[in-house]
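User: Hi! I'm working on a homework problem where we have to compare a predicted structure to a textbook description. Could you give me the structure for the chain below?
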Amino acid sequence: MRVAICDDVEREQDRFVEALHGWNPGQAVERYADGASLLEAAKAAPPFDLVFMDIYLPGESGLETVRALHAISPRTGVAFLTTSREHAVEAFSLHALHYLVKPATVEGVAETFQRLAELRAQPRSKIALTVGSTRHTVFQDQICFLENDNHAVNVSLSDGRRLKVWMSIGELERKLDDRFLKINRGLLVNMDAIAQMGADDCVLLDGSRLPVAVRQRTAIRAAYDEYLFGRLSRRPAYGEAGL
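Assistant: Happy to help. Predicted structure tokens:
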């Protein structure tokens, strides 16, 4: 398992490694002092399984680093390490596994790995898409958004592929699960792929910017917030260290 810690304070890195090895003495960990070096390392194979990220880095935000990390490696798990709970809601909107207040503890580290194991144990729903004469089976969590294109639908995937499916967007919508939200006419977005929901548009983890229907934006925002709250409330309760 490939694990990393990103923190500009060496002593905090040491405390994290102590906690990690208190849980699993044999677990290797890569140490980075800034987001740029972490992101560069994330491009290498195999991808990181889990990254522990400090939110407050000199001249940069750990939250922004995680947005960039998700674009490189969408399935990498992330836990935030911080001195404050101030950014907890925003952190979980980035699909964080955990939000740990420093110093790192054996219990907090263990809980994070448990959450990662539970997440990976969940079945991934699939959908069959016919493109020309070829049938593609993709995981629904691979779909970033779907956009109507006359009598077809362009399906954008997290690996950069775009599949053109000759089917109405209504037919496709009925095959999708509840993570997909209609944000504009002929435009569905995977809410798990949203990095930031604004008033007029939403930004995805891969940097794509999609327009939100002006007249429905209040209802759209409410639906997104409800989905996000529901996802957080389904998390197991892991004690005072977590949220």
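For your comparison, note the following. The chain has seven helices and 17 strands. The chain has a mean pLDDT of 88. Good luck with the assignment!
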